[in-house]
Amino acid sequence: MTKQTLDLTAVWNDAVDMLKNHKEAALAIASVFIFLPSWVFAYFVGDPDMAGATTNDQQLAILMEYFRENWLMILMNAVITSFGSLSFFVVLTHNNIGSIGNALKKALIIFPIFFIVSIITNFLTGLGIFALLIGALYLTGRFSTVAGVVAAESERGIFGSIQYAWKLTGNVGWMAFLMLFVVAIVGFVVSTVIELVFGLIFNLIGGTTASLLSTGLGSALGAILSLLIGAIMIAIYRHLKPQVDGAIPTA
To answer: Per-residue pLDDT for the chain (251 aa), expressed as one digit of tens each?
Structure first.
């Protein structure tokens, strides 16, 4: 059995090239389906207020109340942003998709598969946290190609996509996780610095305008990081698929 290898430099270059080649579609999709929903959610709902919660029981109670009060907004935000991410993945994995409209139609057709696959893989990764944190990290790497599989090969179905994604990452799960982790950490640090700098300016403005600008900036930075990580996941899929079955993923 041939062992897969993961050239991180090649994956990074491929991800950057895909973003450059599809920048108009990526920005259009991210603006409508990732940035705007996240901005609305951040402004009207925001994060749970954990101030004063000093024990695990208090924190759990606050989180439970937060989800109870905002479950519908949380679900709507998750569905819309997931659809946007899938549309972006479709653009990256289908060179002949033609237009953003066609990408959205394709994404709509396969969205049930993608959403269920996401729930299953996130649930399994969550179990890894309860079992051992290192297990969740490993599963993150092993499932890193599942978005690419569903977007490019939705005919595999729900469990077929999960099984094939697992096969693709074979012995490179940790390498895939490492790349995603480094990009996420660097992106988080850069975003934090930008938000801190502009936050000082927004505080001088004050009021509703400051809140709108602050949540808007955070959502914009989050959308950009989401596109970058998404492109890397697709690049990992594109890099590993030919090694497993010799087919070049250019549907």
So the answer is: 568 899 999 999 999 999 999 999 999 999 999 999 999 999 999 888 887 777 888 888 889 999 999 999 999 999 999 999 999 999 999 988 888 999 999 999 999 999 999 999 999 888 877 667 788 899 999 999 999 999 999 999 999 999 999 999 999 999 999 999 999 999 999 999 999 999 888 888 888 888 899 999 999 999 999 999 999 999 999 999 999 887 555 44
CB 12 within 8 A of CB 233: no
Residue among 188, 185, 189, 176 at smallest CA distance from 232: 176
Give the C-alpha distances (Å, rounded to integers) separating 241 from 26, 121, 143.
23, 19, 14
Whole-number Å distance between alpha carbons of 112 and 116: 6
Alpha helices per DSSP H over the chain: 8-21, 23-30, 36-44, 56-93, 100-131, 133-142, 146-152, 157-169, 173-205, 207-245
Burial of 116 (0-12, 13-18, 19+ CB in 10 A): middle
Q: Inter-axis angle of helices 36-44 and 56-93, to 10 degrees?
A: 170
